[in-house]
UniProtKB/TrEMBL annotation:
<dbReference type="InterPro" id="IPR036766">
    <property type="entry name" value="Fe_traffick_prot_YggX_sf"/>
</dbReference>
<protein>
    <recommendedName>
        <fullName>Probable Fe(2+)-trafficking protein</fullName>
    </recommendedName>
</protein>
<dbReference type="Pfam" id="PF04362">
    <property type="entry name" value="Iron_traffic"/>
</dbReference>
<comment type="similarity">
    <text>Belongs to the Fe(2+)-trafficking protein family.</text>
</comment>
<dbReference type="GO" id="GO:0005506">
    <property type="term" value="F:iron ion binding"/>
</dbReference>
<keyword id="KW-0408">Iron</keyword>
<dbReference type="GO" id="GO:0005829">
    <property type="term" value="C:cytosol"/>
</dbReference>
<comment type="function">
    <text>Could be a mediator in iron transactions between iron acquisition and iron-requiring processes, such as synthesis and/or repair of Fe-S clusters in biosynthetic enzymes. Necessary to maintain high levels of aconitase under oxidative stress.</text>
</comment>
<dbReference type="InterPro" id="IPR007457">
    <property type="entry name" value="Fe_traffick_prot_YggX"/>
</dbReference>
<dbReference type="GO" id="GO:0034599">
    <property type="term" value="P:cellular response to oxidative stress"/>
</dbReference>
Length: 90
């Protein structure tokens, strides 16, 4: 059975993640407050961000930057600004 969470990103009740996908306290917060739909949106942004900024996830500074963007995107409603990327018009 799927679980429902009030998604902080989408500001609505939505299907929650099946398990904690990110370690630590932030992971627990994401599991409790972020929907599958919002997480999938973040995954796309994260991939673009890693490619755009050529982040090395073995580097603590790269991970910090990624985590900062993740928090802003998921919990503060900010979009990820990716240079040279124009989102498709809605």
């Amino acid at each position: 059975m799927s679980r429902t969470v009030y998604c902080q990103r989408l500001k609505k009740e939505a299907e929650g993640l099946d398990f904690q996908l990110y370690p630590g306290e932030l992971g627990e917060e994401i599991f409790a407050n972020i929907s599958k739909e919002a997480w999938a949106e973040w995954q796309k942004k994260q991939t673009m961000l890693i490619n755009e900024k050529r982040l090395n996830l073995m580097d603590p500074k790269s991970r910090e930057l990624l985590e900062k963007h993740m928090r802003e995107f998921l919990f503060e409603g900010k979009d990820v600004d990716i240079e040279g990327y124009t989102p498709p018009a809605k």
